[in-house]
Amino acid sequence: MRFFFTCSAIFILLLVLYMGHRYQQELLHNDAKRYLNHQIFLFTKTLEEEKSLALSMAVLLSQNPLVAQCIHTKDKEGCLTIANDTLHSLSPLTHYAIRIHMHTADFKSLLRAWNLERSGDSLESFRHSLVQVKNTKTPLSGVEAGREGLFLRGVSPVFDQNTYIGSLEVIFDYKHITNLLSHQGVALYVLLDKKLSTISDTFKPHQIDLLESHIIVNKEADFDKAYLLSSLDFTHKTTLHKENHFFASLPIRDISGEEIGYYVLVVDTQKKAQWGKVVQRF
In sequence order, which ranges of 127-267 are alpha helices (DSSP H)? Predict the structure, then answer.
């Protein structure tokens, strides 16, 4: 009889410990999901702010008479001088890595200020933003894949005496926002559909080969954990859970509204020290 009661006591103790562990895990998971939802809200807001900033910069620069002159005369060196002077002036005021790209009226690249070796290539077949800006004569911002990768872009028409002569765009990559989220305990993966891989030739093999259907665009992503993405279905917006990680995805839509990939945010439940205090504030 004593043996029976001893076994029963051990069983009850183990059951209590198990239920306590399950309860603590459930609390941890709920906190992780709440934090992830909070970060999705902030991430979406930051994306819109960055697109607006890129657009504002593009509009401001496009109104510089020297820009119109160098584009009109296809003076690549003159355009480079203007771009470098602009970047030098803006660098103390912003933490973004700014890229400036100027195009001619026939959709050819006149100057990529960050890559002087690549110019003169036609962009008409895949840079829908440039076509839309020429047709509407109106600035726009958004996300679009190009020769150099997937970027946040602000594009503005350039005029010479009311005649459209080309366009100027300000470009942001995802480095700043990837690092910002990382400091908050959130990993960001920017995934581009591999069907668009032929547009760009700048992606490295480890960005292309890790996933079956998508390219990992942001070079600052945690590639050691990228394998976790391989079996997840991002066609749904629900939060996913795998190996102590919670995932949430947002579709990436380009200028035309076409879905071209996903933003995936990841929270590691084992790193609550990085984000646990934030959860308590909301």
Answer: 128-136, 175-183, 205-209
Residues 226-238 pLDDT 10s: 888 887 877 765 6
The domain boundary, picked from 135, 157, 172, lies at: 172
Domain span at 56: 50-172
The reported pTM is 0.85
Residue 244 falls in which region: left (phi positive, over 0), alpha (psi -120 to 50) or beta: left
**DSSP-based three-state secondary structure for 8:** helix
H-run or E-run covering 276: helix 272-279
178 near 220, Cβ under 8 Å?
A: yes
Q: What DSSP state is assigned to residue 219?
A: T
Among 270, 224, 222, which residue's Cα sits nearest to residue 243?
A: 270
**DSSP state, 13?**
H
Asked if pLDDT for residue 23 goes beyond 80, the answer is no
pLDDT on residue 56: 94
Pairing of strands 240-242, 149-160: unpaired
179 with 269, same domain: the answer is yes
**Higher model confidence: residue 236 or residue 143?**
143
Assigned domain for 112 exists: yes
Q: Express each pLDDT in 71-101 by its tens digit.
A: 999 999 999 999 999 888 877 666 778 999 9
Q: Do both 57 and 156 map to the same domain?
A: yes
Stated length of the chain: 282
From CA 218, how far away is CA 227, in angstroms rounded? 15
Is 97 within 8 Å of 173 (Cβ atoms)?
A: yes
Query: What is the rounded CA–CA span in Å between residue 17 and residue 12?
Result: 9
